[in-house]
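User: I'm curious whether this sequence folds into something compact or stays loose and floppy. Could you predict its structure so I can see for myself?
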Amino acid sequence: MNRRKFLNRSLYSAMATGGLFSASGMLQVAKAAALQNSGIMGTGYKALVCVFMDGGNDSANMVVPRGASEHAAYAQVRGDLAIPSGDLLPISPANNGGRSWGLHPNLTGLQGLFNNNQAALVSNIGSLAYPIDQIEFNNGSVPIPPNLFSHSDQQSQWQTSVADQASASGWTGRIADLLHNAVNNSNDLSMNISLAGNNILQVGDMINQYHLTNQGSVSLNGTTWGDGPNRLAALQSLLETPQSNLFQQAYSDIFNRSIDLDQVISAGLAGATELNTVFPQQEGYNTLSSQLEMVARMISIQSVVGMNRQVFFCKVGGFDNHDNHLNDHAIGMQNIDGAITAFQAAMAELNMENEVTLFTASDFSRTWVSNGQGSDHGWGASHFVVGGAVNGGDIYGDMPTIEIGSTDTVSDHGRVIPTIAVDEYAATLAQWFGVAPGQVGDVFPNIGRFNSSDLGFMS
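Assistant: Here's the prediction. I'll summarize afterward.
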């Protein structure tokens, strides 16, 4: 990798050193409060792993009503997109409200995790400026997020958890601003690591994301073979020369730390015990399976790199199913099922089941009504949360009633009004991760508008 790209990747982590930016008074106060108010700060390891389904996953075909009358209503609304009742994989939520549910036929692994209480579903989440119902939406009496149903806007609102205005930071970025220096032993590696390139989720005011590939960290070109080590030593000698100009000195410091960090990660991964868990082969480049396998390997060396809290971002595409819906969505379901199931098995192998929580996210769900070949952009969606610390085997929140004329939607096409804000979903995860209740408002500025900052799906 050339110098510019190398620094672009590594600058994100270098920003985590705190030394250049630690004068931010408000954040320092918040960090001190976090340390004082939380009993778990600095102890033990925890990781959050985001699996972002790019394009808008059709969650109405991910979890489907199985009761005879409800499935008949679902089939009438969905038409050619409906999954036959007999093909669904039954699940038994602890609190089902008298309703029966099944998963997409390709979610066999997640069915097992759900029924073994290692996974839960959170129903009907979406970006919301305020709680809103059908009447309020139609008469415009309650503000809604700008540019609803747009991919880029909904992705940003999901990842920033600030739905009513543009935000320069994401919610795990703000968590990292709050916790990173307080809980992690390394100031070189960022708390936030992306396996899928740039994202706003992991951008903070001080802490940004470090980019890995599914093969690990990337070294500078020409430094690892032949005369490469000598060239690298010469470069580092130059970088260690004191500079009178502050910017030149900062540049040298960042460059040196980036080189050191690459060497630490590469050596750690090279020395890590090989996982016995087999991740499925999936078609394409940088597949979800390969991303999650690298996440598992990084978690296996968390003590080597000095991390007690980490957030990983993975992304998988193929969910913008305007056409060829049934086939393409089935492939998407198969991919997330195989990758997430293998990842959970790897966490069990590492004895990290209770320390690592995986959660899914997406732009939005899709319209219930078929456009003839697929479905279009919707709103509220259901999502999985997976891990040993999850209060699994249950559905949290109210599943919408899929029927013609439902008051749960805002259009004849079946765009479902979310009943749980992204803020509530994310705040629940954040508190398990270590954000003290008194700091939830620092990370989620709009959380006070909604019913709960803890939905109860984490133990």
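Summary: The chain is about 35% helix and 10% strand. The two ends are 43 Å apart (CA to CA).
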